[in-house]
Amino acid sequence: EDTKVQIVYDDDAIYFGVTCYDKEPNKIIARLTRRDSWVESDWVSVNMDSHHDHRTGNWFCVNAAGVLNDGQMFTDGWEDSSWNSVWEAKTSIGKDGWYAEYKIPYNVLRFSPKDEYSWGINVIRGICRKNEKDQWVLGRQNDHGWISNFGHIEGIRGINPSAHLEFSP
To answer: Half-sphere exposure of 15 toward its Cβ, with a 13 Å CA cutoff?
Structure first.
């Protein structure tokens, strides 16, 4: 099934619009569950290497019912799903498929100050009824690494990283 991804940004966040076309939209599987719980459902995941070190990053996943799932990636492929951040996604199902809109604030991403940014990215779509997982940048089973194989978005200008401070009593 075709998938279209659009990316825009402003001073506060990066936004992703994903159109998940489906020839049989009545068969889209959209199940509710708790945040960060996996359930058999159609889903889209935006994976980002905002530090652009080809080793670390975050994933931001939403299923067709609007359930959020996020986590950190490290060592070019290891994952930690205990990380939770504040970001938004909205979904809807229509006559051509289903749609996801993401808002990922810069304060949840790690990146150093620069005049222009290049970030690693991969977008993955899961179609439950077909047991199918499609990736913008194909990762073959025998390939080494995960984050180091991401594609790139370039030319991001005029944004500033947030100060990352955490206090624990």
So the answer is: 8
